[in-house]
Amino acid sequence: MEPFEFLLLFAALLLGVAVTDLVGSLHRLFAADRRVIWDWLAPLGALVAFLKIVTQWWVWYSRAIFVQALTWEVFLAVLTRVGLLFLMTAAALPDPRPVGETIDLRAHWRRVQTRYWAFFLAHWAVGAGVSLYMRTPNGALVSSWPSGWLIVPLTTAMMVLKGRAWQTAGLVVFWVVYSVQYVGQSLGG
User: Fold this and answer.
1) Which residues contact 57 (CB under 8 A, 6 or more apart)?
2) Within a domain: residue 185?
3) Residue 48 falls inside a structural domain
């Protein structure tokens, strides 16, 4: 096993747990059938979280040089970032409810939207810090500046603007961004 595979295997397992939680939550919603009051914001938030997980994995694979400069503190930051992504993902859909209890997805999103966006922003901020801190063995920055500088004002706005139209617009923007970000790119190069 290469050092890159070894060090990021733990982080990848945590992302797998996040996907498992997301799929399990979706399964519980479908199984609850008529007890669910459906709304689009929570499932859309779950879709954005899933796409963030997939793009996170994609970026890791494409940055094998990253491990050459990986230090203990940066590895802890990577794990912190994964933890934040898990928390964001877990917030998107409701936790298990007692049998017979109604599950209102609109009310759920109202309860968690600020937390969801705070985890979203914190995930990006830790990644931006790692990118600015990290250098390759030859001294070059791993990334000159993290892409996505609009994330700070957009996610801050989503934490403040509670309206359904704003929340929908923010989630759709990130859904589109994460859906097309790597279109046409392959893992082979």
Assistant:
1) 12, 15
2) no
3) yes
